[in-house]
Amino acid sequence: MKLPIASIALSLLIGPLTSVSAFDIGGLKDKAAAVTEGSSYAQIASLGSSLATAFKGNEKATQYASSLMNSLKSGKYEQAFDYYDKIKSVKLSPDQLAVWNDVKNPLSAFILEQNFDYQESGLADLVSKASSALQGGETTEASNYLDQLKKAAQLNEEQSSLLSQIKKNLLPVEAE
User: Is residue 22 situated within a structural domain?
Assistant: First the structure.
């Protein structure tokens, strides 16, 4: 049986991640999903590192950023938004504020992706578009997709709250 070059290359690339053999094509989808999910967590770690670097010297902001990252790591997404509010309440320098504005919507995109995993293609597409808009800083588009998602999906209480929190934090924070 001949395997396409791409399948062989993918197997060699991700083969060390699991014990599934290189010829187990059915397992490739699961491996690819695990690699993709891992990259989301790597991105979050990178964003957390950016916050830690930017907030150095601002004890409260550093503390809140650390707590925010711990909330994300432990899946306490509603609690994460409490730290958004706390970070906004701390006196940030213009440079720190710029980093916060660059990081908060990609963090919100992560929260969205973790809590809205739909099999239905229309809803999955809305989540994907909203996430991309959040990551790209396209606040108007993100708001539009979040509104569409809220109307199209049957949301549980936590999802509804998270959507509201994401929308509440869309716009850049301005210096006081």
Answer: no
